[in-house]
């Protein structure tokens, strides 16, 4: 959304919206502000306490444009960046430098002191979402951030990633849960795992959660579904990861219509940047609809003939059903089982006509320990190669690119000693 530059005021009355000035709450997004003055930092801090930014993760730093450019050389950019800057040339030059380290899809709100139409046009040309003229009040910040996601033309913020096994028992749920963990922990994206295997789902066990409510309460109460209702059903796993758990009981028969989950997914899209669907290995109207409607799809297969056939069938069907979307992705899991004949990755790639995005080795001790403890692989073995594989899959599915690592210098050891003191 591109908004016209707004003149703000120190007058407290200006902070009071008109009766028809409705500001819709912001979804779960990450916002980082880089301020140059303590007054602006205080206004942004107060805005972060507003109820309409309750779901947003807000972080404030001083240093303005220069600090932002330096920070994002070694870290992924958030959903929204708020920049305070001085002068005309500083804004344009700084934005050009920021663009070189900014991830695609990040929205930028600029706070400046120059009230000039020509400058505004240059900012619009560079893709700035909003330009505010200081001094600002908290409501200006609330309106700017919420306005990015509440306009009718604004796209839904949530990305749906569907993970499905080519065959039962190939570890698709384990991979879905570990990839979601990497998305939340390493990429700092708010994510939710929706366990769609209502009868036998394992997400609650894997995350060591036993919530009294979950996805069954939503799917059996379609008339009650809204943002507040879904929020009550979510179980918090970490600061950035939530779970919409399956009941994993057999008291009910879980026969659903084709559109049974539509309203749940639509509601999650408006509030969560990333939704990971743990799709059970079955073929029904609603599972097909969930896969076709996802933004990205990951098929998990073991290296045998039945998995090759099923992966090929699922891949071809979904690719044909989604001609304007990115092709499905697949990975090979449980590779290297002793004494088991296996189909090589190159043979998979030749049959499916694309390479797997990852090959995960068979490691029953590590995966078994994590499963029995209700932990993720990263918690059991943070430095293990498989942990890095899950992060690479998360980066590929979210389009976040490689994790940027801080650059070291000859002063690093000295700085570490000073920090420890």
Could you outline the blueprint of secondary structure elements for this entry?
Blueprint: E1 6-7, E2 30-35, H1 38-48, E3 57-62, H2 64-71, E4 80-84, H3 88-99, E5 107-112, H4 117-125, E6 130-133, H5 138-150, E7 159-165, H6 172-185, E8 191-195, H7 203-206, H8 215-219, H9 227-233, E9 235-236, E10 241-244, H10 262-271, E11 274-279, H11 285-292, E12 296-301, H12 305-321, E13 329-335, H13 345-352, E14 359-361, H14 364-373, H15 377-380, H16 385-398, H17 412-420
Parallel strand pairs: 1-6, 2-3, 2-4, 4-5, 5-6, 7-11, 7-12, 8-10, 8-11, 12-13, 13-14
Antiparallel strand pairs: 9-10
SSE class: alpha/beta
Strand % is 15-25%
CATH C-level label of the largest domain: Alpha Beta
How many helical elements? 17
Side by side, the strands of the main sheet go 9-10-8-11-7-12-13-14
Q: Can you say what the CATH homologous superfamily of the largest domain is? A: P-loop containing nucleotide triphosphate hydrolases
How would you characterize this protein structure?
It contains 17 helices and 14 strands. The chain has 421 residues and is of the alpha/beta class. It has 2 domains: 136 residues, Rossmann fold (3-Layer(aba) Sandwich), CATH 3.40.50.2300; 240 residues, 3-Layer(aba) Sandwich (Rossmann fold), CATH 3.40.50.300. Helix 1 crosses helix 5 and helix 6 crosses helix 16. 41% of the residues are buried.
């Amino acid at each position: 959304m591109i908004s016209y530059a707004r003149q703000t005021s120190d007058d407290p009355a200006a902070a009071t919206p008109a009766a028809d000035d409705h500001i819709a709450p912001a979804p779960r997004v990450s916002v980082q502000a880089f301020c140059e003055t303590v007054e602006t930092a205080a206004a942004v801090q107060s805005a972060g306490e507003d109820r309409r930014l309750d779901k947003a993760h807000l972080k404030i730093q001083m240093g303005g444009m220069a600090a932002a450019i330096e920070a994002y050389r070694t870290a992924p950019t958030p959903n929204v960046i708020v920049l305070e800057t001085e002068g005309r040339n500083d804004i344009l030059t700084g934005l050009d430098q920021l663009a070189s380290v900014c991830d695609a899809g990040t929205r930028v709100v600029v706070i400046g002191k120059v009230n000039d139409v020509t400058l505004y046009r240059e900012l619009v040309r560079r893709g700035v979402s909003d330009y505010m003229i200081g001094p600002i009040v908290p409501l200006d910040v609330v309106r700017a951030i919420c306005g990015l996601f509440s306009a009718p033309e604004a796209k839904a913020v949530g990305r749906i990633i569907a993970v499905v096994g080519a065959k039962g028992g190939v570890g698709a749920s384990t991979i879905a849960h570990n990839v979601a963990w990497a998305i939340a922990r390493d990429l700092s994206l708010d994510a939710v795992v929706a366990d769609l295997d209502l009868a036998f789902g394992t997400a609650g066990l894997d995350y060591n959660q036993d919530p009294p409510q979950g996805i069954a309460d939503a799917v059996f109460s379609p008339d009650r579904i809204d943002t507040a209702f879904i929020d009550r059903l979510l179980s918090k796993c970490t600061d950035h990861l939530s779970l919409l758990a399956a009941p994993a009981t057999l008291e009910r028969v879980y026969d659903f219509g084709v559109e049974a989950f539509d309203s749940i997914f639509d509601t999650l899209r408006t509030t969560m940047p990333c939704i990971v669907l743990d799709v059970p290995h079955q073929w029904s109207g609603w599972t097909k609809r969930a896969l076709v409607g996802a933004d990205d799809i990951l098929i998990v297969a073991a290296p045998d003939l039945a998995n090759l056939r099923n992966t090929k069938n699922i891949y071809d069907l979904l690719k044909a059903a989604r001609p304007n979307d990115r092709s499905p992705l697949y990975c090979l899991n449980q590779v290297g089982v002793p004494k088991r004949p296996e189909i090589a990755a190159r043979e998979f790639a030749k049959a499916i006509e694309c390479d797997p995005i990852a090959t995960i080795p068979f490691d029953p001790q590590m995966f078994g320990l994590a499963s029995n403890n209700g932990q993720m692989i990263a918690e059991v073995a943070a430095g293990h190669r498989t942990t890095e594989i899950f992060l690479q899959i998360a980066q590929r599915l979210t389009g976040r690119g490689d994790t940027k690592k801080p650059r070291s210098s000859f002063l690093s050891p000295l700085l570490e000693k000073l920090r420890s003191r």
